[in-house]
Each structure stands twice: as structure tokens, then as C-alpha cells.
């Protein structure tokens, strides 16, 4: 090899390397650091009116959308159209089949020792009363536990009234202890011989609006009608009971179960640039109860997660993995869409990197928690840094799943929990008061910004997030 050729080769090599360096520099200039990309998207989302516009559209063009009603189908169509209009890369639906229940008439009044109309609502899947109603003496229990501990036949031929009031907390932790009366009140009352059960609404408000929600029967225990009354009416009942005279109520409920119905989970994706099969799942439930327009439960979650994925999908630098938004069918009547999703996708768990559901209204997010393998905590601390400017603190690695992610979580999927301020949530939950005017647009935007940070960082992580043993590419 002559000197000349050698120098030509070294010149060529130099040229090759210098062009590499040059292109790396150009790339560096074109591609900012991940934290800069995410900060910019976060700040953009925090000012965005998109989530509010989505929620305004859902609550105006669809409104109440109880599972199995014609509005359920309308909501599915709305969601498909909205995903497409927002430019999601993939949009599809997956069938979810369930039993249906329809509310018709509901009324109650105190007939003795005084006369009062009561504001009540039938609990989901309650049987009706006879057409002429039930009029009976009322037996009062403070709590479901008192009812359970009362003697057999304590409520024989009577209407059971349970008056425990739900406590207000930012975290919503008053719900669990209180909701037991709604879930199991009919079964426990029937065991003691009752002909019906009426509970104080599971809610923290003082409005004269009852809160609906699911109740359950148990095989082998007689089915009795079940209703909830508004908080002011429950206060009135307590004052009447304080007079120590026999109290009578007349209750008339007309509801019926319908044929099986097939709704759909609606799914939209923004495809990841390196590992399109691996996804970060965010979402909410599309159905609502029938009394309000489902603005806070869970239209807000629908709007927040759709908008967050849209912001990421429109970004100049998309994350490595796919952002999948799942709008679950029929959460309210038993996580039916969630179970269908897990039945279909549980086998693809390895590609479900992590997830978070927004289903606690429209309050600001004040904290977040993770449930990931120890090795992933460095990724979580990246999120924490980027969440801080939104007023969000990192809590711990003990997060539980949102309701619709419970089945996937049980199969082993890692989850995050972005905690919303739920101080007012149970004022509105499952009532006619769950309407758009209760939602602050800037709170929705703050939520969206937090979901952008979570979803982007999780989807772009070098390490693949898992719940257990770390798997790398
Ligand atoms: Zn909900």
C-alpha cells in the first residue's frame, strides 16, 4: 500500500467520522433532551383548552350514557369519531356484553307520624316494589354493622333505614366504609326479614339530590327493593326518629332488567417510534349513571386521557412506545368493560408496560404513586421532577390501580396512580348534579399535563417498566 493510498484512506475515514460527529451534532441540535421535550409538552398541556372542549362535547352531544341505554351506543360512536377527529393513528372497538337494568318511576314518603315527600333514587339492579308500593314501619340502624349485629328477625316486615353519613376527605377514603351499606344493605336487611331497604345516600353534599350506584343480591337470600335518599331527607328521618314514635314510609320503585346488551370498549392509539407493540395504557370509563350527564364521573377522565395522548401524538419527538387510550364500557355496573379488556389482552401483558386510569373527577392532581419493580424507580424519579412544577408530589411505590385497571393489575401489570383532589367529588358522584358547570377548565388542563408527563416518560424509558423482574431489550 502506497503512502498516497494510505493517506487517501485516512482522509476518507476522517471524512466519515467527521460527518458522523457532524450528524450527531445536528441530531443533538434537532433533538432536545427528553426532560426539555416533556417540560415543553407539559407546559403546553397545562394551558390547553382541549380537555375541556372534549368534555364539553361529550356532555353536550351525548350527556348521560348509562350502560345498555341508547345513549351508551351514542357514546361509543362519539368516542370513535372523536379519536379519529383528533388524529389518533389507530382507533377500534371491542365488544362488551352484559345484563341491563332500567329505572322508571321512584317515589317515597313518610306517612306517619308526620307527612313528608322524600327525595330518593332506586339503586342499580334493585327489583321494583309491587305497583301499589310498600308501606311499612321503618327500623333505623346507624350503620350496616349495627344491622348485621341485630337479632335475627329484627326487621321482620319492616323497611330498614341506614343513616350513616359518609365522611369528606381529599383522598376520598370515606367512601369505602360508607359504600358497604349500598352494596350489601339489601342482603343484610333481607336476612333480618326486611321488606325493603333505604340508605342515606353515599355522598358528602347537603343537596336534596339522592346518589345512585350499584347494589347486589346474594344467591339464597330473598331479593328486596333498595333505594337511597338525599342527605337532607336522611337528616329529617333522624329528627323524626328522635321523637321516638313509630315511623312509616311508603315506597314505590319501578325498574326492570332488560335483555343482554353489547357495548364496546373504545381504543385509540398514538404509535410509538421504536417499540410500537409496547404500550402505556391510560384511560377512563365511558359510561356514566343516568341521573347527571357524567361530567366528573367519568367524562373528565375521558377528556384528560384523550387530550394527553393527543398532545404526545402531535409532539415533534414521539416517545419510543405507543400511548394507548382505553375508554372502558360499563364500569359502573361491575367493571364489565375492564374484565373484557383483561380477558382479551391479558395474554399480551408483556407489551402492557404500565398504566393509569383517571376516574376520580376533575380536581387538581396533588400527588402520584407508582407500583413498579425497584429497578424502575429511577424512571419514576424522572417523572417526579417533571411533575413538581404542577404542584404534584411523589408519594410511594405502593400505588393501586384505577378501577378499570384492576383486572390487568391482578394479572401483573405495573400501575401508577395520579391522585386527584377529591374533596368535592362525592358531593356530585352518581347524582343529577354531575354536570359540566362543576368542572374547572384549568384543573382539567393540569390533569392533562400530569398524564403527559407520566405517559411520555413511561413510554420513552430506556428500561421497560415492569411490576416484577426487569426485562430489557
Ligand atoms: Zn367512575
Task: Sum up the structure in keywords.
473 residues; Aminopeptidase; Glucose Oxidase, domain 1; 2 domains; 14-stranded mixed beta sheet; 13 helices; elongated; disordered C terminus
Brief characterization of the structure:
The protein has 473 residues and is of the alpha/beta class.
Descriptive overview:
- The chain is an alpha/beta fold.
- It folds into 2 domains: 33-89 and 271-460, 3-Layer(aba) Sandwich (Aminopeptidase); 102-255, 3-Layer(bba) Sandwich (Glucose Oxidase, domain 1), CATH 3.50.30.
- Helix content is 37%, strand content 24%.
- The protein contains 13 helices and 14 strands.
- The chain has helices spanning 3-30, 34-46, 50-61, 70-85, 144-149, 175-191, 231-241, 295-313, 336-345, 377-387, 406-411, 425-428, 441-460, and strands at 90-112, 116-118, 120-122, 134-141, 159-162, 196-200, 226-229, 248-270, 275-285, 321-328, 352-357, 365-371, 393-394, 414-420.
- Strands 1, 2, 3, 4, 5, 6, 7, 8, 9, 10, 11, 12, 13 and 14 form a 14-stranded mixed β-sheet that branches.
- Strand 5, helix 6 and strand 6 (196-200) form a beta-alpha-beta unit.
- Helix 3 crosses helix 8 (295-313), helix 8 packs across helix 13 (441-460) and helix 10 packs antiparallel against helix 13 (441-460).
- It is elongated and about 80 Å long.
- Bound molecules: zinc ion.
Amino acid at each position: 500500500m502506497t503512502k498516497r493510498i494510505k493517506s487517501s484512506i485516512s482522509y476518507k475515514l476522517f471524512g466519515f467520522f467527521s460527518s458522523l460527529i457532524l450528524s450527531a451534532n445536528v441530531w443533538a441540535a434537532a433533538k432536545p433532551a427528553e426532560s426539555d421535550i416533556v417540560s415543553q409538552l407539559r407546559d403546553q398541556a397545562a394551558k390547553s383548552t382541549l380537555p375541556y372542549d372534549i368534555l364539553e362535547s361529550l356532555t353536550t352531544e351525548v350527556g348521560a350514557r348509562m350502560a345498555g341505554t341508547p345513549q351508551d351506543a351514542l357514546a361509543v360512536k362519539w368516542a370513535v369519531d372523536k379519536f379519529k377527529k383528533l388524529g389518533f393513528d389507530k382507533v377500534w372497538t371491542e365488544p362488551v356484553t352484559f345484563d341491563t337494568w332500567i329505572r322508571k318511576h321512584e317515589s317515597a314518603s313518610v306517612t306517619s307520624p308526620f307527612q313528608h315527600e322524600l327525595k330518593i333514587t332506586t339503586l342499580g339492579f334493585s327489583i321494583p316494589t309491587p305497583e301499589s308500593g310498600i308501606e311499612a314501619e321503618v327500623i333505623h340502624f346507624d350503620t350496616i354493622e349495627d344491622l348485621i349485629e341485630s337479632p335475627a328477625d329484627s326487621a321482620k316486615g319492616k323497611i330498614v333505614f341506614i343513616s350513616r353519613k359518609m365522611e369528606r376527605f381529599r383522598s376520598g377514603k370515606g367512601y369505602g366504609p360508607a359504600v358497604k351499606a349500598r352494596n350489601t344493605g339489601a342482603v343484610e336487611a333481607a336476612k333480618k326479614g326486611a321488606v325493603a331497604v333505604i340508605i342515606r345516600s353515599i355522598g358528602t353534599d347537603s343537596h336534596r339530590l339522592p346518589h345512585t350506584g350499584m347494589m347486589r343480591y346474594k344467591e339464597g337470600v330473598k331479593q328486596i327493593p333498595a333505594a337511597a335518599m338525599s342527605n337532607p331527607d336522611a337528616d329529617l328521618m333522624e329528627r323524626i326518629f328522635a321523637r321516638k314514635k313509630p315511623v312509616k314510609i311508603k315506597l314505590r320503585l319501578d325498574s326492570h332488567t332488560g335483555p343482554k346488551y353489547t357495548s364496546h370498549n373504545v381504543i385509540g392509539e398514538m404509535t410509538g417510534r421504536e417499540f410500537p407493540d409496547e404500550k402505556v395504557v391510560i384511560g377512563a370509563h365511558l359510561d356514566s349513571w343516568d341521573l347527571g350527564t357524567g361530567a366528573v364521573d367519568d367524562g373528565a377522565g375521558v377528556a384528560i386521557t384523550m387530550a394527553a395522548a393527543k398532545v404526545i401524538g402531535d409532539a415533534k419527538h414521539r416517545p419510543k412506545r405507543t400511548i394507548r387510550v382505553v375508554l372502558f364500557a360499563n364500569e359502573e355496573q361491575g367493571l364489565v368493560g375492564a374484565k373484557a379488556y383483561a380477558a382479551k389482552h391479558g395474554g399480551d401483558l408483556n407489551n402492557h408496560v404500565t398504566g393509569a386510569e383517571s376516574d376520580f373527577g376533575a380536581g387538581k392532581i396533588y400527588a402520584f404513586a407508582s407500583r413498579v419493580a425497584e429497578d424502575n424507580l429511577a424512571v419514576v424519579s424522572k417523572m417526579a421532577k417533571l411533575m413538581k412544577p404542577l404542584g404534584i408530589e411523589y408519594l410511594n411505590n405502593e400505588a393501586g390501580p384505577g378501577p378499570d385497571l384492576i383486572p390487568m393489575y391482578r394479572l401483573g401489570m405495573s400501575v401508577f396512580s395520579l391522585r386527584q383532589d377529591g374533596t368535592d367529588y362525592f358531593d356530585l358522584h352518581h347524582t343529577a348534579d354531575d354536570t359540566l358547570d362543576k368542572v374547572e377548565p384549568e384543573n382539567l388542563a393540569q390533569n392533562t399535563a400530569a398524564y403527559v408527563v407520566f405517559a411520555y416518560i413511561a413510554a420513552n424509558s430506556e428500561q421497560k417498566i415492569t411490576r416484577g423482574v426487569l426485562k430489557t431489550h
